[in-house]
Amino acid sequence: MTPAESTKAEELIKDLNWRYATKKFDATRKIDAETFAAIEEALRLSASSYGLQPWKFIVVTDPEIKKQLSAAAYNQSQPGDCSHLIVLARIARVDQAHVDHYVDFVGQVRNLDSEKKAAYGGMLTNFVKNTPDAARDVWAANQCYIALGFLLSAAAALGVDACPMEGFDKAAFDRILDLPAKACHSVVLCPLGYRSADDHYADLAKVRFPVSEVVISV
Amino acid sequence: MTPAESTKAEELIKDLNWRYATKKFDATRKIDAETFAAIEEALRLSASSYGLQPWKFIVVTDPEIKKQLSAAAYNQSQPGDCSHLIVLARIARVDQAHVDHYVDFVGQVRNLDSEKKAAYGGMLTNFVKNTPDAARDVWAANQCYIALGFLLSAAAALGVDACPMEGFDKAAFDRILDLPAKACHSVVLCPLGYRSADDHYADLAKVRFPVSEVVISV
Fold first, then answer.
1. Are strands A215-217 and B84-91 parallel, antiparallel or unpaired?
2. Domains of chain B with bracketed CATH
């Protein structure tokens, strides 16, 4: 490692130790536009299987909607008090139409002729054909969890607090946000913003099993 | 944003644009111990729901085993040619024993008395009680996908190439790595190392749907 690489590695680990699941946000502090744009871009750049990006990211800043979503998250305060609430949603169905749309877009970005596009699309069509609907829905949700990892890492790097949340009423979220009409379904939440000065969770020691327990070297 | 924050945001986005799913690794280049330790630490620091960390990370560097795993990944070269192959595995079952173990560990790290430990554990016991086995297995796998996001972000920050892979024979991986005996099951792979100079995928334009398509502002 060069000294510059060492510094970067130290900073990465420091940032990841700084982050924690924020239980109480400072409702008065908002993420500035430039910082949020960087987080949104990191989210957009997330990896997904085949590159299919089977997701929508709902960014909620409307105070009234955030209040409703807080209620639908079993009255947890974070969706209401955060600056930007991200709802990571999977598209309703990864189907041939999505594959066609994606392959067209790849062709456009990479300037592929129709033969190359057909070759590229064939593999994806087989995936759609050979995977049951329900399994593709689970698969799409999995990709949202990858994106959540990118989102949490980016937020930590930029000093923005976050709280990944699975505890919410998905049907209520979908209804409040009118997601079926947008052809997607909520999977997992990530309120973003800044920790409240009196969130005592911020001071608790981080609990991670030791390497000796979670890593198996072969 | 301060100038320092701007620089960090630019670097983050540059790193994420630099990464791509590496199709061909340089089999002669190995990740140095210090760099790998930082990546492993980032992985260990990944977020998980309730903090339960229902995972094991199998780090494979044995050339003979890597070759077998490459064959079990439909002969894709990356598991064999990479420097370190990470198999992200879920623990076989998130059960009361895991909850008890976790709560004991939390108590140890945070110096909790038995009353506080019981309060902490109650919520987790309810989760185990009220969630069917199969749903908890899916849930544990989801957490591995979050960890994959952390892993890919960390590797990109440290200039290490990676290739997330879902296309492999899970039963064969479990068998070759003897995972049932280690009470876990493979979920997703991430070979790490350095791109081969002739991996032409490195030069292709990144394909991501525009913000206007994937972000819905509310």
1. unpaired
2. 3-214 (3.40.109.10)
